[in-house]
Amino acid sequence: MFDTSASNPxxxxxxxxxxxxxxxxxxxxxxxxxxxxxxxxxLHDTAGRLDNGSAVRWFLNPDAxxxxxxxxxxxxxxxxxxxxxxxxxxAGKSSYKGESGVNAFAFGIEMVNLGKCSKxxxxxxxxxxxxxxxxxxxGLHFAFVATRAHGKGWWLxxxxxxxxxxAAICQVLIARYDLSFIAGHFEIAPGRKIDPNPxxxxxxxxxSLLGERQEDASAPTxxxxxxxxxxxxxADNVIKVVGKGQAVDVIRSGxxxxxxxxxxxxxxxxxxxxxxxxxxxxxxx
Length: 285
Hints:
It is a single chain. By secondary structure, the chain is mainly beta. The protein folds into two domains: 10-213, Lysozyme-like, CATH 3.40.80; 221-283, SH3 type barrels (Roll). The protein contains four helices and 24 strands. The strands form nine sheets. Strands 4-8-7-12-6-17 form a six-stranded mixed β-sheet.
């Protein structure tokens, strides 16, 4: 799917992206900070309107408290808003391989897309902001997909131009900054974020651009046999016993006092069930 042998039109000069030797459009977002040591790339959906510039304008608003290094439009056009030596505010509360605050060590790239849509009685597809879109109209194509990470919904595909642009940009970022991973927002903020949507070929992109260099982002595992509980306590609320070494998906975490002192507990998914497990029993690294 990704031709990494083709001539790449993108280069990086002074921490700015260039296309065919000329800087791409740059619209500086005020939502950024200086501390930054990039090791990877986080991919996002804008989950907003599809008209060119909509997401870029939002990131120019100080009240947004959000930004990305790059935004890729449906036609493949790209706008930079944060220099590559500065931290963009794209990840929010997040963790990668047990390390929190992913903004501090990963680039953020936004792809213009609607996010999850619902199918209405008249056949239209409606995102959260109540727009009216239709499968096959205006070159838009939707599919119904259900995954554990994304839930059930109708999703808009990504254009070939978007994917070509993204792959080429990721290639030059990896080479210039010696990056070791590409992850989706849903992987660093499970249960809170669901982008990019399940139609995006994330695994293929990683395999093509990183191969064996991609860091092992395997799920946390149990250090010993553990009780999966209906709520974070030691009451008679055990759902089942989960065996040592079992991988679990951490949905969210919290601090509770079932014995009078603070303990970290994690709401996890294992198999087709969810429940709470004491944090000391899970290997998060």
